Amino acid sequence: MEKTMERKRMLRKSDFEMLISLRDEMLTQDTDAQASPRYWVIRDYGWEETKKGLHGRVCVYVPRYYDTYEIKDYLDNIRFHYDDHSEETLGKLSTIMEVAPDLEEDERNSMYLQWIREYIDDDAELVYEVSIPRIVTSTFFLTKREAQEHIKANHYHYSDKVHTYAMTAWRSPQVDMLYSILETTDWETIASHVDFFEKENDVPF
Length: 205
Known about the structure:
Strand content: 15-25%
Structural class: alpha+beta
Number of helices: 7
Number of domains: 2
Radius of gyration: 28 Å
């Protein structure tokens, strides 16, 4: 099969302006205690099941719905937003929710679970979960600023604990060489010796 030649575009003046700006930012930005070649990713937190006593929150697994819910939020949602329970049933739930804050955690969750088993699903079970940090897949930024801007623009995809996280491309000679080129090249001098195609239509592809 004949190999298709890749089309290459000529460098524009704006390309050099970007390289100069990127070089200066990479050399002056915070390092976040990471060695070069450093890059930034997005770090967020998710919940995973754990043992009782190591948990950060208590949930309830409801087989009827094949899903797990944070137990207090689940009951508050039923209490205030659902009308498919009788006044008597909701009254019992309201009583539980009012006295629960004064109880020990085990007693409180036992009362929650008892109500759920009686009125929602008698096979419901408590689930203990812990918050675990995770690197968000498909995130990679050369500058911390851009990573921060990504979070700001896409905050609705993340939790309120999301943050930037610096890492090092450890033992990657190609990345190390690329960073060296980006950070040490005198792009201004090179640009001064280039005849640019200033208009988009003038750039040959």
